[in-house]
Amino acid sequence: MGEGTGIPAAIGAILMGTGKITEKGVLPPEACVNPMDLLELAKTKVKAAAGRGFPIHIEHIDKDGKSQQVNLFS
């Protein structure tokens, strides 16, 4: 459950505490969180189980069904 609830909440709290989230009220994440701020923080603070590295994987699937892993930090 950590990946789906605890980790995102902790990252959000850190972003709020560091002033990267300033909006107030009930908002969807896309209205107040810069995705790259979130990913950079996750890259430095979140460890994957069994030491497998950064726990977030982004995959692009084109209209023909071809899958490609995306590296945002290269």
Question: Can you give a write-up of this model?
Answer:
This protein is of the alpha+beta class and 74 residues long. The protein has one domain (2-70). Helices cover 36% and strands 11% of the residues. The protein is built from two helices and two strands. The chain has helices spanning 2-17, 35-45; strands at 58-61, 67-70. The protein has a two-stranded antiparallel ribbon. A hairpin with a 5-residue loop joins strand 1 and strand 2. The longest helix is centred in the first third of the chain and has 16 residues, at 2-17. The chain is globular, with a radius of gyration of 14 Å. The model has no long low-confidence stretch (mean pLDDT 84).
Helices, strands, pairings?
Blueprint: H1 2-17, H2 35-45, E1 58-61, E2 67-70
Antiparallel strand pairs: 1-2
Strand content: 5-15%
If you compute it from the alpha carbons, what radius of gyration comes out, rounded to the nearest whole angstrom?
14 Å
The average pLDDT score comes to 84
* Spatial shape: globular
Summarize the model shown.
The chain is an alpha+beta fold. The protein contains 2 helices and 2 strands.
What attributes does this structure have?
single chain, 74 residues, globular, alpha+beta, two-stranded antiparallel sheet
